[in-house]
Amino acid sequence: MLGTSLSEKLRNWFAEEEPAAAASSPRPAPPQAPQPAEVERLQSLERRLKALLIQPQLLSAGRIHMLKLDTLREGLGTAWTDLRDRVHATADRIIGRHITAQDVQFRTGDGEYIIVFAVLGRTAAELVCAKIAEELHRQFLGDPKLADIKIATAVGVLDGRMQFEYASAADLLSTIGRTDAPVADALPATPPAPASPASLAADREEPRKLQLSPMEMAQIGTMYRPLWDVGRQVISTYMCIPVRRFPDGTAVEGAAALSAIEDPHQLAKVDVDTLANTIEMLDELFRNKFRLMVSVPVCFETLAARRTRQEYLGLCQSVPDYLRPFLIFEFLRFPAGVPSGRMGELVNEVRPFCRWTFLRVEFRQQSFAGLAGTGLAGLTTLVPSDRGAEARTMEDMNGFVAAAERAGLKTCVVGIGSTSLAVAARAAGTTLIAGDRIGRAEEIPQHMLRFGWQDLFLREASR
Q1: Section 368-389 average pLDDT
Q2: What is the pTM of this model?
Q3: CB within 8 A of 224, min separation 6: which ones?
Q4: Which stretches of 289-388 are DSSP H helices?
């Protein structure tokens, strides 16, 4: 368990006044002794908390924050009791995606979380917390009232109790688009060590890579777009897509959401987080009798470098055997002309953990002979969104599918926004199609759905 002094300090710091009625309520039964795994987790938490709490600037830097799910509990009403465990599991997953390995998070009550940031300053930390709260509320309540969601920042200790200042998530998130946002506040508090001659030489040899700020990274999430299996007339596969949201309310998805990330380590973090979150979600759906496949993106940079590849494959190895038949990997950002031997090598690295591997390619590419025999199952491509050029798009789609079939590859065409393009994709022989015409991106995949051509036209008529 946590050391006595530390646990008492935490209880005193984060405790809130109990209602008067609580004094007469029966005393709860003493908790059972924790299991060895829980003891080890708490001891690890103790070590990390101690390392952070001894820093004298921790409070003054505004790095301790509290998230309370009062508004979420009120919004769910009587459903809160049934959904409590799911909310907590989802909160842990969302928080884990937005914080670093050096940060600490733990739950102090029913729907009450403390996050201690190791590096981020107050402004950046508040923004991360606001984003976490927004994402969690949106998942369970739909479009949340951000003004009602409060983020608490610890500002001091009085009479043994932590004192907080509160700000609304709406106000915090509105600051992201301002040009005077304090980017330096997101940098480490300690100055970097002087560069060595060797590191300076390395800098000269390798161009500097642009890094997104923690605030910008916090705006990158994932959603799931339904894929229609044209031959089987069913929606049984969902494509996990990166989504980057901007302060003005716009968003981009897919490879475009990752185009601004040049630093390979940031890119690898997105890939690892996406896979981890998807596997957790898929496992939960599986346990609830949902049967569907999910396509997960992974970038060339992540698989090409030994260090990031080993980290990614290490996570792949933790995928339960019963989930692997429901997993598809989609390779993104692969440069044109990757040798077939290299492609086959990377496919073989991930193939034990999935059913299929797909490669994202340019739409007007018409030759895939070099990909035959690499182990790839298929190709995905994004059609142009220009409605005025649909005739040309249909012609190119015929050529694309025919070239893929010659190489023995399935095809998945994304970006289908009209019934005419869906009909053309079917005529071309496309295996899978996706786009707003089939279904919009969702926060969580749905159960397998029978979906025939008549359903497509009925859906159009109902618009």
Answers
A1: 89
A2: 0.56
A3: 238, 239, 240, 241, 294, 441, 442, 443, 444, 445
A4: 300-304, 306-317, 340-350
